[in-house]
């Protein structure tokens, strides 16, 4: 064989590998933390038909489609009532008002949550009191609550963060002991179960967000409150509608926080699919849990009695920036939930918290990242994320 023939042969031999690598690059092109396009393409026709009905009925604010969603969502959560509102932050605000919480009151809130959990408290004039999370489940550390209870404490908000139910029985026990209200923030956890029971009916009320990126997300902004208590239910209906039950008669200062018709119509369609979508998220999470073997990556600990819906799949690692850079180079783009814990946010500087007050929440903020997680994530992408992490 001539020298140039040998070189040509070698080149030809490496071509399949090169093409294969190109294929990997094509797959790798973009694996984001969340991609809403796949879901919305799948159900586009159904959602547009639902929008058309809203349009024909001019039922743009409140109305029959919102009522349909309220009944469907209450059934989904196994609660007597659900009240649709304009977003999850309003749901928290109205739930606080329905409990009668206001200036001078204190409400226990996890330091490790999205800030809106605390906004609901602050909007009423009450003060959020932040409690650290545990170092393994990353949920409210129930052993640290009692130290924070004062004569002004009125309620505890537990958050089913990342889609994983918090330790409901332990929080309920503290509430019972000190005669406090318990609220669930289920914004990230539609369909999650605690000891086999869906979240949403454990506290006085549970607050949900249907922000587009949530497991059950509207085509627009939306939220809701579930409850088994008729008095709270009726009060919420009034509060969200200018403090009015009979039109133009206002019994109290109320709010315009109604759910939109188009949003509710999209939710009515999605409610049919949410269980299948949650199951797909569970299957992806199982692969992550079973196959991520890198000692550099720590996963969230899950007690046996919780069934998460994996709104987020959060992991921690010592050198978060290093891992992010490495993953980005491999075309994987994790999210970051959340970079600053609530007690250290500037908005709450006046409360006087300092670094070290909630060490586990602070550790998470500095070391967490959220792996790609959405129902439409392809099996080969999941495998690629796992393989890439294990090679780190
Ligand atoms: C834990 C938690 N609580 C409350 C909210 C607020 O919901 P929304 O964005 O619909 O106001 C969110 C949404 O991001 C959340 O994740």
From TrEMBL:
Which keywords are on file for this protein? Pyridoxal phosphate
Sites bearing N6-(pyridoxal phosphate)lysine, chain numbering: 214
- Kindly indicate whether the keyword Metal-binding belongs to this entry: no
A biological process term (GO) from this entry: polysaccharide biosynthetic process
Q: Is Hydrolase found in the keyword set?
A: no
Q: What Gene3D superfamilies has UniProt attached to this entry?
A: Aspartate Aminotransferase, domain 1 (3.90.1150.10), Type I PLP-dependent aspartate aminotransferase-like (Major domain) (3.40.640.10)
Q: Which GO molecular function, any one, fits this protein according to its record?
A: pyridoxal phosphate binding
* Active site: residue positions: 214 (proton acceptor)
Which domain of life does this protein belong to? Bacteria
Q: InterPro entries under this entry?
A: DegT/StrS_aminotransferase, PyrdxlP-dep_Trfase, PyrdxlP-dep_Trfase_major, PyrdxlP-dep_Trfase_small
Question: Which Pfam family is one of this chain's hits?
Answer: DegT_DnrJ_EryC1
Protein family (similarity comment): Belongs to the DegT/DnrJ/EryC1 family.
Q: What is this protein called?
A: dTDP-4-amino-4,6-dideoxygalactose transaminase
Q: Which organism is it from?
A: Pontibacter ummariensis
């Amino acid at each position: 064989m001539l020298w140039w023939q040998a070189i040509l042969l070698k080149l030809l031999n490496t071509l399949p590998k090169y093409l294969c690598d190109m294929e990997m690059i094509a797959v790798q092109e973009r694996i984001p933390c969340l991609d809403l396009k796949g879901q919305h393409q799948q159900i586009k026709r159904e959602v547009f038909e639902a929008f058309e009905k809203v349009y024909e009925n001019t039922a743009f604010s409140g109305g029959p489609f919102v009522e349909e969603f309220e009944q469907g969502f209450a059934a989904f959560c196994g609660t007597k009532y659900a009240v649709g509102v304009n977003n999850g932050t309003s749901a928290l605000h109205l739930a606080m008002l329905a409990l009668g919480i206001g200036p001078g009151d204190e409400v226990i809130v996890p330091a490790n949550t999205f800030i809106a959990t605390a906004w609901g408290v602050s909007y009423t004039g009450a003060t959020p009191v932040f409690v650290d999370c545990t170092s393994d489940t990353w949920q409210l550390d129930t052993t640290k609550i009692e130290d924070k209870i004062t004569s002004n404490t009125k309620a505890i908000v537990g958050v089913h963060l990342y889609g994983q139910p918090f330790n409901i029985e332990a929080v309920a026990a503290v509430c019972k002991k000190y005669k406090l209200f318990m609220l669930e923030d289920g914004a990230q956890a539609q369909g999650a179960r605690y000891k086999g029971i869906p979240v949403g009916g454990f506290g006085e009320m549970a607050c949900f967000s249907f922000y587009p990126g949530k497991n059950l997300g509207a085509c627009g902004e939306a939220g809701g409150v579930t409850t088994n208590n008729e008095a709270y239910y009726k009060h919420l209906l009034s509060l969200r509608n200018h403090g009015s039950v009979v039109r133009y008669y206002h019994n109290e200062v109320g709010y315009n926080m109604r759910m939109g018709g188009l949003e509710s119509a999209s939710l009515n369609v999605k409610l049919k699919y949410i269980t299948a979508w949650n199951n797909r998220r569970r299957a992806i999470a199982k692969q992550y849990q079973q196959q991520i073997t890198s000692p550099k990556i720590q996963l969230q600990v899950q007690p046996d009695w919780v069934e998460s819906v994996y709104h987020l799949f959060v992991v921690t690692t010592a050198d978060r920036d290093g891992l992010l850079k490495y993953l980005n180079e491999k075309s994987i783009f994790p999210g970051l939930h959340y970079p600053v814990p609530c007690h250290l946010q500037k908005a709450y500087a006046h409360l006087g918290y300092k670094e070290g007050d909630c060490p586990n929440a602070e550790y998470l903020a500095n070391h967490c990242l959220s792996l790609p997680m959405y129902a439409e994530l392809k099996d080969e992408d999941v495998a690629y994320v796992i393989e890439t992490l294990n090679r780190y």
